[in-house]
Amino acid sequence: MDELKAYKAHLHEIGKLDSALALLAWDQRTYLPRKGQETRAEAIGKLTKLSFQMATSPRLGRLLDGLGARDGLSDEDRASLRVVGKDYRRRKAIPARVVERFAIARSKSETAWERAREASDFKAFLPHLEEMVDFSRRFADYYGYKESPYDALIEDYEPGMTARELRTIIRPLREDLVPFIRHLTAEGRRPDTDVLSGHFPVEAQRDLALRALRAIGYDFDAGRLDTSVHPFTIAIGPGDARVTTRFLDALVLSNLFSSLHEGGHALYDQGIPEALRWSGLDQAASFGIHESQSRMWENSVGRSRTFWVFFQPILAEVFPQFRSVSPETLFRAANVVEPSLIRVEADEVTYSLHIMLRFEIEEGLINGTTKARDLPDLWREAMREYLGVVPKTDAEGVLQDVHWSTGYFGYFPSYMLGNLYGAQIYAKAKEEIPGLEEGFARGEFAPLLRFLREKVHQHGRMYEPKDLVRRATGEEPDSSHFVRYVKEKYGGVYGLR
Ligand code: ZN
To answer: Quick one: 215 and 307 in the same domain?
Structure first.
């Protein structure tokens, strides 16, 4: 068989295993009965091993070498060799015995973190955290890097990004956003959120989520909506990108925004073109780009003034108590800024500061300038400086996130980059599509979706995130778009102008 055909067939075989794995994982997080968990873990373990073996097989190595030396390949094929080759080398970089030791240490660390968080006992978690940092530093050495070991770790989440660039990107957040939030909360008029209180039955909330997803163009023939404790999106394979939400009885907008958020992720997955199937390019460009799509639909669209002109009648149809509440009141109630302790509950403005703090701490841990035992103090100082609130316990502070306990160093910046990329791409969409936001008032979201399909979705993993942002917007990634968006919108909502 021709080498190129053999290469593609090999990737397709891996893809089938990964698709089955994704379905098992989806089931595990939605409907799997408790007593089935043990067998499921075994099935997942077996398939993961098979997939890993194929993704690191000498045969794939030979195909990559052979094709790498060949002329006359298409741009897509060359991009495929680049990303698959990189994944291959990274997987092979860590010796199998280290991978195994890490897997065991990680599982213990996660359990220790859960207990430590419950008891708010950082000291109990400290030795595990130190071990996770040590492993990650060793991984960085195995992967190799030019400037900072942290750069080798970000690569898994945000290819091509470096700690140095992140520090530059963050500067306007620290210099402009921190004082702006202080000004906003001290002198602005906080929107009234009393109109949102009440009890909202699950079935009606589900109806609302379905309507919102349909409105933004989510294809129910290529996905479905279910419930889970933590909402997520998962691409099972071509033609199957599923979302979940959760229903909180007293919080009607929580489900709506979570559905728009996951819907934004799923629109991206549904927009990956057929031509890229099973090429290694049929994925998002990065975690940050994925997050840019979800946050754009949730915040730039769902929390816009004109969205509420469209959605107020729908909300009032499902929940009649909103009949006499104006779109403007709902728009304002959906845009409250509140410095708070917990990242996952943060609003779109303060969210990035939670990430800034985590990035600065974890970068220090990985390059050795920060000691793990100092984390609780560093955390409190940074919270005071950036958000003006200080956790009383470590459970509400340094122990709140699972990431470090599982060795995910370099992951956090993607959340923030999602906000920043999203604001930049959305600014470009507004520039290129006349009347974009006026259209939202009539339920016209297709022009934005078309724009995103063309500029972002259709490229899959062809380009690294920075390159993709440059192609989509004509500029380097630049956080000033986000800062401008925040100041304009919230300056208005809080009556600061
Ligand atoms: Zn997300």
So the answer is: yes
Structurally, the chain folds into a number of domains equal to: 2
For ligand 1, the distance from its centroid to the CA atom of residue 294, given in whole angstroms, is 6
According to the model, what pLDDT value does residue 102 have? 93
CA of 218 to the centre of ligand 1 (A): 16
Report the separation in Å between the CA atom of 472 and the middle of ligand 1, taken as the mean of its atom positions.
20
Is 355 in the same domain as 400?
Answer: yes
Domain at 351, CATH number:
1.10.1370.30
Q: What is the pLDDT of residues 333-375, one digit of tens each?
A: 999 999 999 999 899 999 999 999 999 999 999 999 999 999 9
- Which residues are designated catalytic? 262
Going from the Cα of 292 to the center of ligand 1, the distance in angstroms, rounded, reads 8
Mean pLDDT of all residues in 482-488: 96
Q: Among 127, 149, 177, where does a domain finish? A: 127
What's the average model confidence in pLDDT over 116-125? Answer: 97
How far, in Å, from the CA of 482 to the mean position of ligand 1?
A: 17
Enclosing domain of residue 8:
3-127
Q: Report pLDDT digits (tens) over 412-452.
A: 999 999 999 999 999 999 999 999 999 999 999 999 999 99
Kindly state whether residues 171 and 84 are assigned to the same domain.
no
Q: Which of 81, 108, 127 is the last residue of a domain?
A: 127
Instruction: Say yes or no: 369 and 248 in one domain.
Output: yes
pLDDT at residue 1, as a whole number? 64
Instruction: Report the predicted TM-score, pTM, of the whole model to 2 decimal places.
Output: 0.95
HEC readout, the chain: CCHHHHHHHHHHHHHHHHHHHHHHHHHHHHCCCHHHHHHHHHHHHHHHHHHHHHHCCHHHHHHHHHHHCCCCCCHHHHHHHHHHHHHHHHHHHCCHHHHHHHHHHHHHHHHHHHHHHHHCCHHHHHHHHHHHHHHHHHHHHHHCCCCCHHHHHHCCCCCCCCHHHHHHHHHHHHHHHHHHHHHHHHHCCCCCCHHHCCCCCHHHHHHHHHHHHHHHCCCHHHCCEEECCCCCEEEEECCEEEEEECCECCEHHHHHHHHHHHHHHHHHHHCCCHHHCCCCCCCCCCHHHHHHHHHHHHHHHCCCHHHHHHHHHHHHHHCHHHCCCCHHHHHHHCCCCCCCCCHHHCCCCCHHHHHHHHHHHHHHHHHCCCCHHHHHHHHHHHHHHHHCCCCCCCCCCCCCCCHHHHCCCCCCHHHHHHHHHHHHHHHHHHHHCCCHHHHHCCCCCHHHHHHHHHHCHHHCCCCCHHHHHHHHHCCCCCCHHHHHHHHHHHHHHCCCC
Based on the fold, state whether residues 395 and 460 are members of the same structural domain: yes
Q: Is residue 132 part of a domain?
A: no
- Contact between 282 and 457 under an 8 Å Cβ cutoff? The reply is no
**What mean pLDDT is predicted for residues 133-138?**
98
